[in-house]
Design goal:
CATH superfamily of chain A: MetI-like
CATH topology of chain A: MetI-like fold
Number of domains of chain B: 1
Radius of gyration of chain A: 22 Å
Largest sheet of chain A: none
CATH architecture of chain A: Orthogonal Bundle
CATH architecture of chain B: Orthogonal Bundle
Structural class of chain A: mainly alpha
CATH class of chain B: Mainly Alpha
Number of helices of chain B: 10
Number of domains of chain A: 1
Number of helices of chain A: 11
Strand content of chain A: under 5%
Radius of gyration of chain B: 22 Å
Order of helices and strands of chain B: HHHHHHHHHH
Helix content of chain B: over 70%
Helix content of chain A: over 70%
Strand content of chain B: under 5%
Oligomer: heterodimer
Distance between the termini of chain A: 32 Å
CATH topology of chain B: MetI-like fold
Structural class of chain B: mainly alpha
Number of strands of chain A: 0
CATH class of chain A: Mainly Alpha
Shape of chain A: globular
CATH superfamily of chain B: MetI-like
Distance between the termini of chain B: 25 Å
Shape of chain B: globular
Number of strands of chain B: 0
Largest sheet of chain B: none
C-alpha cells in the first residue's frame, strides 16, 4: 500500500478515535461511531426511509439543474464581455457571501410550503458559485481563442457554444463542484424548516425526539454522499486541468 | 468612481426602484413584498428606538469571536501542517471535501454537547471559517518563491526573522483571501445558527419576526444585515486592493 493512502487512513483512524473519545466523555450526547453506523444500516433497511430519501434526491436534482443552468446562463455571457464582468463580479461576490438562510422566509412567502420552496432555496445557494466560476473561466482564456473565432466569422453565440465554453470546462467543473455541495446544503436546510418529507425533515424530527443515534446517522449518510460526490468531481477536475491541450 | 462602479450603482438603484414600483403597484402580493422605502423607514425607526441593539451587539460579538478564533487557529494550523509534508498529504483529501459537509446539521448535536447559548453558535461560525483560513495559509506558503528562503539563508536570518520578514509578506495576498473568506463564513455560520434555534441575536430576531407575520420588521432586519455584510466586505475588498497595489508598485 502506498504511504500516502496509509497516512490518509491513519488520519481517518485518529478522527474516529476522537469521535469515540467524545462518546466516552458524553455517552448520552454523542453516539459511538459503531452505534451510528448500525443505526444508519437499520434506517437503510427500513422501507419508511426510502420515500424520504427519494424526496430529498428529487428536490436536490431539480435544484442542481436550475443552479447549473442558471449559473451558466449568467456567468458565460458575463465572461464574454470584460466590462459587464467588471460590473457584475462584485454584485455576484456580495451575493455569495450573504447568509442566504435569512432569505428563507422570503422564499417561503413567495413559493409557499412544499417542493418548490426547497428547490428555490437550493437553487439560490448553488447558482452564484457556478456563475462566478463560469465567468472567470471564460475571462481567463487566452485571447487567441476569441481571435480564432473571429477569424472564422463565428457569431457571438457560436463563439460561446463552440469555442469558449468548451475551453472553460475545467473552471466550470470547479464551479459545479462547489455549487453541488452548497445546493445540497440549501435543500437540506430547506427541508429542516418547512417540510413534512425528506431527510431534513427526518433530522428535525429526530432533534425534536432527542433521538441522537438517528440524528448522527442522517448526518453521516448525507455527509458520506456529499464527500463521495465531491471526491468524484475533484478527480474529474484534476483530469481536466492536467489534460494535454 | 470608475465607469464600472457607476454602472453597477445604476443597476442596483434600478433594481430597488423596480421593486418599489412592483410592490406599490400591486404587482406582487401584498404582505409578500414591502416597498423598499417603507422597509428603510422601518429600519430607521428600529435603529432610533434601539430595539435591535442588543441582538445586533450579540451577533456581532459572536461573529468577531468566531472569526478571530478561526483566523488564529487557521493560520497556526496551516503554518504547522505546511511544515509537515507527510501529514499535509494525508490531510489534503479531508480539506478538499470539508466544505461539502452539511454543517448546520451538526448544530443540534453541538447544542446537545455544549448546551444552549453562545457556545454552539460561536462553534459553528468557527468550524465554518477555520478551514478556509487554513487552506489559504497553506496556499500562501506554497507560493513563496524558492529564491526567497534561500536569500534569507544567505543573510543568515533565523527562523523567526525569516517567517516575519520573508514568508509573511510573500504569502500576504493569499492570507488576505483567507481572511476575507473567514469573515464571510463566520457571518454565514453565526447567522444561520441563530436563525435555526437560538433565543437571541439578529438571526433569531429575523426568524421571530417571520413567525409573527411581522414582515416589515423582518425585511428591515434583513436590510440591516445586508448593509453590514456589504460594508464589511467592501472594507476588506478596499484593503486588499491597497495591499495588491502596493505590491505591484514595488
Amino acid at each position: 500500500m502506498p504511504t500516502r493512502l496509509l497516512d490518509t487512513l491513519l488520519v481517518l483512524a485518529v478522527g474516529l478515535l476522537a469521535w469515540q473519545g467524545v462518546h466516552w466523555l458524553a455517552p448520552d450526547a454523542v453516539t459511538s461511531p459503531a452505534g451510528t453506523v448500525a443505526r444508519a444500516a437499520e434506517m437503510l433497511a427500513s422501507p419508511r426511509f426510502w420515500p424520504h430519501a427519494g424526496e430529498t434526491a428529487w428536490a436536490f436534482a431539480l435544484s442542481l439543474v436550475f443552479a447549473i443552468g442558471g449559473g451558466l446562463a449568467i456567468g458565460l455571457p458575463l465572461g464574454l464581455h470584460r466590462f459587464s464582468a467588471e460590473v457584475g463580479e462584485p454584485i455576484l461576490v456580495s451575493l455569495y457571501s450573504l447568509p442566504k438562510i435569512t432569505l428563507y422566509p422570503v422564499i417561503l412567502l413567495v413559493f409557499g410550503l412544499g417542493l418548490s420552496a426547497k428547490v428555490a432555496f437550493g437553487t439560490i445557494h448553488g447558482l452564484v458559485p457556478v456563475a462566478i466560476f463560469a465567468m472567470n473561466g471564460v475571462l481567463a482564456l487566452p485571447p487567441v481563442y476569441a481571435r480564432a473565432a473571429r477569424a472564422l466569422r463565428l457569431s457571438r453565440w457560436r463563439t460561446l457554444a463552440a469555442v469558449l465554453a468548451p475551453a472553460a470546462v475545467p473552471e466550470i467543473v470547479t464551479g459545479v463542484r462547489i455549487g453541488f455541495s452548497v445546493t445540497l446544503l440549501g435543500v437540506f436546510i430547506g427541508e429542516m424548516f418547512s417540510s413534512q418529507r425528506g431527510l431534513g425533515f427526518l433530522l428535525m424530527n429526530a432533534i425534536g425526539l432527542h433521538d441522537v443515534p438517528t440524528m448522527l446517522a442522517i448526518i453521516l449518510m448525507v455527509g458520506a454522499f456529499a464527500v463521495t460526490a465531491n471526491a468524484a468531481l475533484l478527480a474529474l477536475e484534476h483530469r481536466l486541468h492536467h489534460r494535454p491541450a | 468612481m470608475s465607469r464600472a462602479g457607476l454602472v453597477r450603482t445604476a443597476i442596483v438603484v434600478a433594481a430597488v426602484a423596480a421593486l418599489e414600483l412592483a410592490a406599490r403597484g400591486g404587482l406582487l402580493r401584498a404582505g409578500v413584498a414591502v416597498p423598499p422605502s417603507e422597509v428603510a423607514a422601518k429600519l430607521w425607526s428600529i435603529l432610533r428606538a434601539g430595539d435591535a441593539n442588543a441582538d445586533l451587539a450579540e451577533t456581532l460579538g459572536n461573529v468577531a469571536l468566531a472569526c478571530g478564533l478561526a483566523l488564529v487557529a487557521g493560520f497556526s494550523l496551516g503554518a504547522v501542517v505546511h511544515g509537515l509534508p507527510r501529514l499535509r498529504r494525508a490531510l489534503d483529501p479531508f480539506l478538499a471535501s470539508y466544505y461539502a459537509l452539511p454543517f448546520f446539521a451538526f448544530y443540534p448535536v453541538l447544542i446537545v454537547v455544549l448546551g444552549i447559548g453562545r457556545l454552539p453558535i460561536v462553534a459553528i461560525g468557527f468550524m465554518f471559517a477555520v478551514v478556509a483560513m487554513m487552506v489559504a495559509t497553506l496556499n500562501g506558503f506554497d507560493r513563496i518563491p524558492r529564491a526567497l528562503p534561500r536569500t534569507a539563508r544567505v543573510w543568515r536570518m533565523g527562523p523567526v526573522r525569516t517567517a516575519l520578514k520573508i514568508k509573511l509578506p510573500s504569502a500576504a495576498p493569499h492570507l488576505f483571501t483567507g481572511i476575507k473568506l473567514a469573515v464571510a463564513y463566520a457571518f454565514i455560520g453565526v447567522i444561520a445558527a441563530e436563525f435555526i434555534m437560538a433565543t437571541s441575536g439578529l438571526g433569531y430576531a429575523i426568524a421571530y419576526a417571520f413567525n409573527n407575520y411581522d414582515n416589515r420588521t423582518m425585511y428591515a432586519l434583513m436590510l440591516l444585515l445586508l448593509g453590514i455584510v456589504v460594508v464589511v466586505n467592501g472594507v476588506l475588498h478596499g484593503a486588499e486592493q491597497r495591499l495588491l497595489a502596493r505590491r505591484r508598485a514595488r
